Amino acid sequence: MTDWGARAAERLKALAEASEPGPGVTRLPYTPQHRAAIDILSGWMKDAGLAVHLDAAGTLVGRLEGPEGSGTFYLGSHQDSVRHGGAFDGIMGVVLPILAIEKLLAGHVPLPFSVEVLAFADEEGVRFPTALVGSRALAGRFDPGVLEMTDNGGISLRQALCDFGLNPDAIGEIARPSQAALGYLEAHIEQGPVLEEEDQALGVVTAICGIERHQITLLGETGHAGTIPMGSRRDALVGASKIVTGINELANSVTDLRATVGALDVHPNVVNAVPGQVRMTVEIRSPIDATREAAGRDLAAMARNAAVQCSLALEIERSYSQPAQACDPALVKRLDTAVRQTGQQGLKLPSGATHDASAMADLCPMAMLFVRCRGGLSHRPEEYAAPEDLGRAVTAITHFLAQY
Ligand code: HGY
Ligand code: MN
Ligand code: MN
Question: Which of 237, 305, 321, 355, CA to CA, is 20 to 30 A from 312?
Answer without folding.
Answer: 321
